[in-house]
Amino acid sequence: MVRRLGIISCVIFLACAVVAQVSTPPSAATGKTAKTKKSKPEKAIPTEFSEDVAKQVLSQIRQALQGHNPRQMLATFDKDNMDGYYALEDRLYAYFNQYEGFSAYFRILESSTEKDRGVALTEWQIEAMPASGPPVRREGQVKFEFAVEKDGWKIVDFTPRDFFQ
Known about the structure:
Layout: H1 2-23, H2 26-30, H3 51-66, H4 70-74, H5 85-98, E1 101-114, E2 117-129, E3 136-149, E4 152-159
Antiparallel strand pairs: 1-2, 2-3, 3-4
């Protein structure tokens, strides 16, 4: 009888150990913490155009100029819906290759909505630093047209087209 109780106790102990092993995540059993992939919270894309939307997109252009990053600047333009995108891409790479650095400032003079597009009239001041020689300064007004896409607001047109060169 004592022997039988010992065997039963042993079986119960083993059953509990198996249940604990099955219900415990592998990382807890090894003492390591489980790495969970953190998902970035999705940014809500505003559906209505506003001056803040224009400021956000144009700030990316300013940051790209100052960071000497043509890819970041091109990311603000809608490759699929902008006429002459590839010519713009070529001009921007040439512009960035011509100068070692930029200092840029913009101000939004007015913003409005026309049909499904946003429009912003801006004033820009850019100082481009060549490898040798004095800085080249350029200032003027640039009109941008924006459209909302699945990944946010993008520039679909701007005039004058030769401003960033």
